[in-house]
Predict the structure.
Amino acid sequence: MRVDLITVAYGLPDDTKALVEKVLEESEHDVKVHLFLHSKYKDVVKVCKALAKDKAVKLYDYGVNRGLGKSLNEGLLAAYGGGADVAIVANDDLLPDDGAFDLLAELAAGNQDFYKVYGRMFVKRTGKEDDSRLNFCAINPIALETIGMFDENLFPIYYDDVDWEYRARLAGLRDIVSYDVHGVHLGSASIYSVPGLKEQNGTTFYRNREYYKAKWGGNLGRETFSVPFNDAKFDVRIDPKVRSAPYPGYNRTDQDIVRI
């Protein structure tokens, strides 16, 4: 079957290379890779351009930290619009165990009524096992049909996954976690390796959190609204056609805070 991998390269050239090469070398399926380049770091650019020499890899050379959700949206639409049977998203600081990519794809293909399928990861930063959630996750078409896109007002990263999953719960969607799907996740590796990024994240994380609280009436686990901003003209789905500005009157205009 056709399985598309969507991943974003930012500041980890060796890890990006290892992920893409492992999937292409090991998978028994027809794999297409959507590789989004979010920086101009020379080593990362070099790796991405080398990977893109493989006809299975499509490079989206943006060269800026445009937001994870924005590229996941574009990748999912390209994957399913281009004939993929399953779309899998993976962080650039993650490496699946042998066979985990195909197992995840096969579980998703066999459980189309579930909006996402994910596994477990050993997180090096914490030294603990944790659910992979959207770090390594198959997203089925029912997710796009029911809740649509990630909220691009959450940028460049953090709370985009939380918002998407909360909307899925409101919509009554179900997911599956498989303990047989496993891998190693470095855990926020870019933030701790790219100079200045940790400081910037202090600002972007805070503003994402405040936006999320305004949107749902409370922080994670304390939400009180069942529709965005408690405004009846919205629902839980973000249509692809309006994904860049889904909430007139509430959309953010402070994208300039992302400088790295």
Q: What stands out?
A: Residues 197-216 form the longest helix (20 residues). The mean pLDDT is 98. DSSP finds eight helices and nine strands in the chain.
